[in-house]
Fold each of these.
Amino acid sequence: MPVIQFREALNQAMCEEMQRDPDVFLMGEEVAEYDGAYKVSQGMLAKFGPMRVVDAPISESGFAGLGIGAAMVGMRPIIEFMTFSFSLVAFDQVVNNAPKVRHMSGGQVKVPIVFRGISGPGQQLAATHSWTVDALYTHVPGLKVVIPSTPYDAKGLLKTAIRDDDAVIFLENESMYGNRGEVPEEEYTIPFGKADIKRAGKDCTVVAWGKTCLTALAAAEQLHKDHGIDVEVLDLRTLRPMDTEAIFASVRKTGYCITVEEGYPTCGIGAEIAAIVQENCLDSLDNAVVRIASLDVPMPYSKPLLQHVVPDAARVAEGIKKAIYFKG
Amino acid sequence: MVETNQKVEPSISQMLEWYRQMALIRQFETRCSQSYQQQKIGGFCHLYNGQEAVAVGSIAAVRPTDYVITAYRDHGHAIARGMDIRSLFAELYGKKTGCSHGKGGSMHFFDVSKNFFGGHAIVGAHVPLAVGLGWAAKYRKEDRVVLCYFGDGAMNQGSLHEAFNLAGLFKLPVIFMVENNGYGMGTHLHRHSAVTDLKLRSGDAFGIPGKDVDGMDCTAMYKMILSAADYCRQGNGAIFLDVKTYRYRGHSMSDPQKYRTKEEVGRYQEHDPIGRLEKQLRDAGALDDAKVQAINEEIHNQVEQAHAVADADPYPDAAEVWQDIYSNPYGPYQA
């Protein structure tokens, strides 16, 4: 099976969907002539031309809204935000128009649009440029939120997102674009709302999504090597819809639940998971649900400070040990 | 702007139809006003009295295949686009039979079968959507134009200026119409806009020609839109129109109108668009007292009947709250 980069998997997904459906187009800042700020759309302008791979001016609200308007008459826009930190300039379009036009028209209008780009703290970009937007957008009925952790998942989930008839937020991570993984040459898609066990284990359940799956897997391997602790890592893959049954099944098996996120603990995804796990699996729990998240502060610039704020494998490993009462 | 190839002068029968439509909008909203006071209508209700010629004259000049999108003062556009007033009353009353199943209310009328894409309540936020409709038409090489309406208050929103730039940059077939009634809610144009000639704040700045038009004159609106639509259909890009109009009622039903005098309202009512068209039709011998009375009685009956039916219609079931949110909550592939 070919081994390709995460960004190539995304590129393949977009190219394949644009080949099969003439209503799919890509628009965003620097996606065309520049070949993509992070090279995700490399070569696509040459392949599809300027009507289908379109450089937008720095007007997030404008081009997000343009995409929604085009989707209202059945086109399937892929709108790239250079980073989801900039999507906040278009917040009204993303949380009001994209997910609510269908509702407020009594189901007459569908909005099959994908907003994609990077989310997460990145490389020392300071507070306004380092948003982890997963909880912000998962909060909104009418949106779907997708966050892949591997090149395989990225391609399969993006193809599903483009074919989906609703507004999809597709979250990527700058530090993962160069990650490599096996991606089959033949056609495949991955359903939404289906979590994936990235590492099976019996001692505790770690729920993660996107980049924190990789952090959790690194912590799990370290704990296994050092202490023989057998961690199960459940990758949610989509946050809305969320595969709650997979979470409950794993927690009922292991008795412990730890969540790991790059976002904030206050009203975060981990907080939501903690709530639904105690509502549904209280009798199976041997300890409270433990949330591991970024510290509840604006993202600092300085490298050691940033490393202190964002959870790494060592912090996750410590959190897991605490959660399962491991003394050693 | 270009010279239109179409027959510019409207026929008497067209003008009679406009008169009928404007009278229908006026009487529909008289009933809305009563129903609001009777608390049959909730939320905000923004009436269109005085501005009827804008929607009627402009929509008369385009085709059923063209796209129409507007802001929250949308009753007139919906009726001019031919929506069934029973479904509008039902929507206002929050009924199952409403055009938006009782999910949208006064500010969110939609009828996709008539290419009427709302009814949008966040000021200026639908202007980028209009540009997207225009983008789709251009991308698909379809012969369509977009009529996009907004108020003068929306001229101060960033999303509108972003949308203008995109429409100018991509040369999209959109007719932007500011329904300039002089007030952004209760704040007069002179107090909300640094430059009050709105053409200067839109058209030329973005490569979009701008024109003024008398929005109290249905025929002037019709002629201007015919010409603007021709310009767009020929691939020249967008047009901006500063449509001078006036609303007789408050911003919404809850507006005490302390920001203007009754005399000011009276001055504009002397140029009432319905009265003006009526005079033209009387001068042409197409209307007389008896005909005017007959038309208005017929419309009155139509409005009262639609209201009564909608009033008796059922509310949606509680289970309806879960409908119309997703096409399929789990995407195209069931988990």
Amino acid sequence: MNIYPEFEVVRNDSRCIRCRVCERQCANEVHWYDEDGKVMLSDESKCVNCQRCVTLCPTRALKIVKSDCRLRENANYSDQTIKEIYRQAETGGVLLSSMGNPNPLPVYWDRILINASQVTNPPIDPLREPMETKVFLGKKPGTVTRRPDGSLDTALPPQLTLSMPVMFSAMSYGSISYNAHASLARAATELGICYNTGEGGLHEDFYKYGPNTIVQVASGRFGVHKDYLEAGAAIEIKMGQGAKPGIGGHLPGTKAVGDVSKTRMIPEGSDAISPAPHHDIYSIEDLRQLVYSLKEATQYRLPVIVKVAAVHNIAAIASGIARSGADIIAIDGFRGGTGAAPTRIRDNVGIPIELALAAVDRRLRDEGIRNNVSIVCGGSIRSASDVVKAIALGADACYIATAACLAMGCHLCRSCHTGKCNWGIATQRPDLVKRLNPDIGSQRLINLMNAWRHEIKELMGGMGINSIEALRGNRLMLRGVGLTEKELEILGISHAGE
Amino acid sequence: MSPKQMQSPPLEGQVRIPSGCAVSAMISRDGRRMNGERIIESMVPMHDRSNGLGGGFAAYGIYPEYRDFYALHIFFNDRRCQEECMTLLRENFEIVQDEHIKVRKMPQITDEPIIRRVFVSPMQSVLRHLQIDEKELVVRTVNRINAQLEGSYVFSCGKNMGAFKAVGFPEDVGRYYRLEEYDAYCWTAHGRYPTNTPGWWGGAHPFCMLDYSIVHNGEISSYDANRRFIEMYGYKCTLQTDTEVITYIADYLLRRQGLTLEETASVIAAPFWSTIESKPEEERRKYTYLRTVFPSLLVTGPFSIILGFEGGLMALNDRLKLRSMVVGEQDDMVYIASEEAAIRTMAPDIKTIWSPAGGEPVIVKVKEGAF
């Protein structure tokens, strides 16, 4: 069935100079030049609205607009719903989507407001006073021990040191490009934070960024070997992902080419399918064994992170993980991004990170084990104020990936699964990959993080707080607006005006 | 909340109450005992730092004849509360003495509760049964009374020391409790300027736990981070005040973790990372360790606190020194106060007065054996 395209390419012919840059830049082959009529033509059905042509058109002759050709309006059967049914009726396939859940479900960050000092307590000016954002992630000892001479025994379990409480979240080499990884690795190193390899192994060129690298071990174990484990500053066991809780991953064979296949240690062109569970972890005690296997393999030098998707019973799950020997728990909310996920799962499985984080932090405190682990939260942390709210709810640090992709040029067209990313991020096509210059990509990531760091400091200073640790779990600094009693109770905050 | 409670303004503990304040202290390093006249006088020039909604004192060395017993100072709303509380105490302690705390009736101090002083000794059988030491039993019992028994409030529970507090201006509170009749080697005092409370006797300062007493001036911005951490370890912040949480932090670090006073100070008012970087290796390791292990006990926002304990005191400012605090020294005496005027009241011809830097603890200890 022929479905009218979702977008329309609007070309102002009086501005178009026939330079054909749109044609060359579009990997989806929307634009072409008609020699006979001397005009640029387009096939809108291929357009994903990635804005590449719009951005690069030198005369601003192009714009992409949402098509107003709509099916008959129906509040129950939306345009989208009906078209998905047509598509499935035609192909018999599972619908695929990319990036985070775009549906209008509640964003609790936007319903939480931050405090500031007035009169009784002075705000602190970050331009004039020190304002500290350094954090250590890892287990904290429960009791202080002393050496025979009475001095403090300063030995600590392994800690991950970050200059600010933000890290780049897992995106595998394969799902994103070499240049994207290079940008992330270089930026993380420059910033004194960490990026995360994702489940695709670590390209040999990037071992030098090891002190700022988190190496991931996922259910497919792609690219996992001793040197890989020892290369990073921490090891992350990926149990789940916010965008697709309960399922594994699938890198199509078309992306498993060249260095990607070598780094993943799989044959070129073969699909890389990570299973839904780790087949050596069917229960919490199995997780403990993997945690300790990884610690043994790395002489207990590195903290181990366990990453889970935010699901209904997240507080109890986190409590189990906190007792498993893991040093850090990473919780990924249902809005987290992905390079490809079944649409139904992405849009309907999991819970918001704000509620999951609040519930986990409270549970671990109620059980007196909050010090056993640090908490990292991710799944749509969009700005410095989201970071501040997350820390005040109880997180030690945040993971960002979508925001990092945006910094590198992503326009959130949500078509990563096609492998034709015009911005050189979610693709392995050499001609597209080279569009992302790691010098520029890393600089833009550094700029973004520096901007956030400034904003975090401003917000902290306003609250009269001059170190990030005094903000962590400081829920009195938050108030809800327009939230129900139940939501406030779960978030552990008061309503504005209280 | 019952309709009755909704009509009246919320009490201490039902809302979070920031407050400004005045603090003052005097201590004899020789362990000489002095009556309460001078410490009361020191609060007079700082009158405007309080608003009449709370004043109090802590005195060390006042009960030498009962030095082996825990001196509980307790407020009761009525006889029924008193009975209930005494029953609980009798289950865990021998009651050595149970008496009224003598007061001087005056128009400035009204709405007084029943104020009792009870000297107790923990029952060995209870300690063995619970497998805890006697200090822990005192802490647990006091926490239980304060959190669970309505109308009973233990506001002091150390040995050979005591707190005296009320709603009123501090100089009136001192006279009300007849502090000129007590002799102490160390006195601390507090005048309160709460911004959000009808005033409740239990909410006045000092705040005490065992022999630790805290008087504090400031409003800490780290309150909820500190509270939520410390509550993991059996403390219950029933008053929602800064002073309460700082007292628990001190008890946790000093008694339960066995940190020294200096170490405790560098957790509460931790040196900045930039300062730590510039220290020699050994110190750098120590400070980094303390900040890494106890990040949630860093106290930010303005504060000046005086922590009293058996045989000494420690004064500490927040690390940016956002609250005033001065120290004076003369012969065996050390004076500490929010304002120099207070020190000059206590010691008119004092020569040595200085202002300690933010985060720099001033620790004064009485000569060993002199208290």
